[in-house]
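ok trying this again, last paste got cut off
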Amino acid sequence: MGLHELSEVRANATLDEAENASGGDQRSESLADPAEKTTQRGGVQLHGLERYINLSSVANFGVIILGSWQTFAFTFQFALTNGGPVSMFYGSILAGVGCTAVGCSLAELASIDPTVGAQYRWSANLAPSAPRFWGLIQGWITTAAWCFACGGPPSLISNIITSLAIFNYENYEPERWHTALIMIATMIVPFILNLFFRRLLNWIEMLGIILHVVLFIVMIVVLVVFGPKSSPDFVFKTLVTDVSGWNNPGICWGLGLLTVTFSVSGFDSVLHMSDEVKKVRTRVPRSIILACVVNSTMLFIFVTVMLFYLGPLTEEITLAPLPLIYVLYGATGSKHATNALIALISLTTFFALFNIFASVSRLVWVFARDNGMPFSNFFAYVHPTLKLPLNALLLVGFVVTCLSLIYIGSATAFNALISLQALALHISYFLPILFILLRKLRGPPPPYGPFKLGIFGIPINIFSLCYLIYVVLWMPFPTLLPVTKDNMNYAGPIFAAVLIGALGHWFISGHKTFQIPINRYE
């Protein structure tokens, strides 16, 4: 165990004693805002992060980064060809309950051990055997998933912009290089804002949550007041099985479910900010649960209202790259109103991207501190003035730029990399929940933090695992038949490549160099 790992274990032990002694609700200001830790490794000075994020910011952080109803609004076209209304409506219920159960399981773990590494450190400490092996494998899975996930919001925004251009200028034909440049341009502002993260955090989170809620209300009112009413049979009984090539009702329903589950994935993002949150053992768990409950509820309401006021499934809606444009245009009859609503909703994606950049850069930083990736010393650097992992943030921006350039050469390759996000994240949730469930069943249970599930813990953990298995089973399926090189679902092969890379790293050097604080929660 290296010097910085020992100091971190001692700091966490001090934090545990302080919060447990006070029930997790109060602790001295000196412990809430410890002096910045500075350590040496390989001749390089490594700085720690300071705790300064308050309750409102951390609560809003998780809600904004998920942005479930906005994500669904911009991606529901994929569910129209598989499953349709039935898959959307009932899927939103299953996804909401499932993600909340998983979120509660992770919240309990966060209260036991609030750490930026989250999934990979929990897996290492809870694994029945080979803790460092499971920690490294889990670290690769989680870090790869979030790095590629950073390309999602820029891709979404570029689709919004090009779709609005097509909507307003019928002769416009977007080129792939247009999309790539838009992706890079949309990344620049959140990236620069992250350099001043500490100063801007409270304002950005407050503006983001206001937009999140106000635009939700506006959308519901616009659809209910102006939208054409659909029948209850359309909402509750219409199962689409004749568009994508799949004709098995069960398969179509399962594939349609993926659009909804994608909208509620990523609630672990706030975990990776743990080293900067005051009263972390209570506030981070509450933020996770709040993000899951609020977004699941809003998603269910939005899905239900939209289906009731969607109108007939015309070619414009079923074949458009962004059908929400034509849903709103059909309701309002005004291009100006449609443009304004779409632009304002897309603005919330900028706030989410700001949060994603912050979260992923911290995850890369702590994985590098544990020697879990190449050039660890470089990416473990924290800028002494900005108080943030600058090199890790630069890596995130570099990944998004590379993904944008890949899109110019091959949209299929780009989509293959982006598709890794949902699969890898769900698997990253599975392992620590499985390990803590085994610990509860075999005993003794780990020393719980201020938040614990109590007698409901084992049932919630079991349901969470069943939900994750069911969702993951559908993720490698191709969404269209017949399968071609362009519509192939590459999530499975890309995930296998990540696993091969992780195993290669372990056997070549990781078993010697990977250093992670392991106390087995004794």
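PB: full thing came through this time. The domain at 52-510 is CATH 1.20.1740.10 (Amino acid/polyamine transporter I).
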